[in-house]
């Protein structure tokens, strides 16, 4: 397979840097082609703004989605955005690796999504009518590709457990896994989460690599999270609420996953 | 009151820009002192990295929390970080206004939290022992201050309803409201969320301003969200799981709020 690793950590010698290097080697040893977008090393521009289009503005003022769509459709995006989109087209699987900062990804990676996910590429795709509400949540330009998060936390596993104070890790990752990955079409694999990584990191490194290796070795075969497809019949269109007869009386992130 | 508005939108002439201007005027008219951190206008640096400290590195390599703590404690932080911390100390209330991009805040605002929330200032505060696990989730350096989100979305309100496909808006905002605001001590007010803002924006602008004005007028008096304090007796320390006799059998973000 062709595997892209999108990586966000400011220090190459960190645990995250070492885990990323291990992943590259493990994937290459298994015969995969690997590219890495090391966002800090690339000095990735995080903020979406008018410099992201080389075309004249569509309207009087910069408009994030209108100007993004125009630039995308007319091959006038900033070169760094086009390059990342090309990597996504090339990839069969994409791994997003980052330390959990403030219960989400580092700003530099959020800026990768904000900018690379152009209108017409990752959203605003497909027709909106009575039976389909665009191509998203299971359909779209990234359909057929796999995505997986590799996340490290300083906090304890119990703090991220179903009744832990930080909130359950699956719910904290839902806006990313469902909202950023499933949305443009990715099949989303269960995440690799390594907890409390500042404790005894040297002693535990080999065990973390084992965990990671197991998941990398099954990147092509592992069963994705069973998020419900938007246009598969489970949702009322255009309200996009779950049909009343499915998971009746329940609500929250969990209902959007088949159990 | 002293009110700080932290604002993230790339275009001053946008709806978000107009709403921000309205808020400033409304607050001033009511006699409040107002400062605005307009992150795009300030060309705010989004990525946390070794340039955030002016001190020599604590270890051989850059370490986000160790070097952040050292720089904070020795007055050697980058000047833009210090300036924002000073604004937070000055403020009685802080409003964070942004468009919801990929179910979270724009990268430039995430980078405000990543960098301004230094170790020793917003996390890593207080002692950890058998009855207290640091000062956080209701305690900390920002305790006594109020915070409120003002968020715009392109999507419909039903898409963010309890069974809407995007997930309930309260759950999408939990990592921000609970994880970034309640964590360092803020009392978090219910958010102002304006939906589907790309539809008939001119015709609806006055109504949005009315909604906003009502909330700004009650900034000092409105009841905060009743998140549970970490050290208030509801959690088992150090596992930090909710006590078994509270909301028995329930899990998810909702259990961390008193009903």
UniProtKB/TrEMBL annotation, chains A, B:
Its EC number is 1.-.-.-, 1.6.99.-. Residues 1-205 form the Flavodoxin-like fold domain. It comes from the Bacteria. InterPro entries: Flavodoxin_fold, Flavoprotein-like_sf, NAD(P)H_dehydrogenase_qn. This is NAD(P)H dehydrogenase. It holds the Pfam family Flavodoxin_2. One of its GO terms (cellular component) is cytosol. Keywords: Oxidoreductase. GO terms for molecular function: NAD(P)H dehydrogenase (quinone) activity. Belongs to the NAD(P)H dehydrogenase (quinone) family.
